Amino acid sequence: MIPLWKANFPVRAGAGPNVAQSCAESAPAALLQRGRRIQAEGSLTPAPRPRERADADHTGAVTRLGATRPMPDTSDNTPGYTALVVDDDLAIRTLVRIRLSRAGFEVTEAGDGEEGLSRAIALTPDVVVVDAMMPVRDGFSMAQELRDRGMECAIVMLSARGQASDLRRGYDAGVDDYIIKPFDASDVVRRVQEAVERRRGIT
């Protein structure tokens, strides 16, 4: 096999054996000399710079590909409000709990109206988010009982029933807001915050 440095120095066809031998012997010296020059002067080819994103992050700074971008703060910095989420549907209860927690609420859960009533009395939360139709005790009865006990917490009702008579029944029981399912989770968070602030006289 011909060494790589020999392959890089072809000899013109017809050249004599002395010429070929001379080229072969001078090749390592030429490569060594070039390597020393590169080491002294620095690389002949500058190192490629990382590409930069054309899209700036939320702070307005341009970030390089592969760099870690700071995550925007999605919290609304709700000042220590407490919430009780009462719903027999685990998926809805979990969704509301997660979204309220991200907004800064300290959240407790209950799976039916009777359990929700007991926890509301014991914890006195700033807001109760309650489903209208549940086993054991429904949301209308729970809301009415809380008001009869003189509790001033905000009450936001979630319900798949959207007739005018259903809304009237909810407001007569003392709820502050009535949200019809299916709902947008962001809208629920906003309306829960607004209900708490109205009760506190902030808005």
List the helices and strands and how they pair.
Elements (H helix, E strand, L loop, with lengths): L3 H4 L9 H25 L40 E5 L3 H13 L3 E5 L2 H11 L3 E5 L7 H10 L5 E6 L4 H9 L4 E4 L4 H15 L4
Parallel strand pairs: 1-2, 1-3, 3-4, 4-5
Overview of the structural elements:
- This protein has 203 residues and is of the alpha/beta class.
- It contains seven helices and five strands, in the order ααβαβαβαβαβα.
- It has a five-stranded parallel sheet, sandwiched between helices.
- Helix 4 packs parallel to helix 5.
Give the tags.
single chain, disordered N terminus, alpha/beta, 5 strands, five-stranded parallel β-sheet, 43% helix, 203 residues
Strand adjacency order, main sheet: 2-1-3-4-5
| N- and C-termini, Cα separation | 87 Å
Outline type: globular
Percentage of residues in helical conformation: 40-55%
Mean pLDDT: 77
Give the SSE string: HHEHEHEHEHEH
Fraction in beta strands: 5-15%
C-alpha Rg, in Å?
37 Å
Structural class: alpha/beta
Major sheet: 5 strands, parallel
Brief digest:
The chain is built from seven helices and five strands.
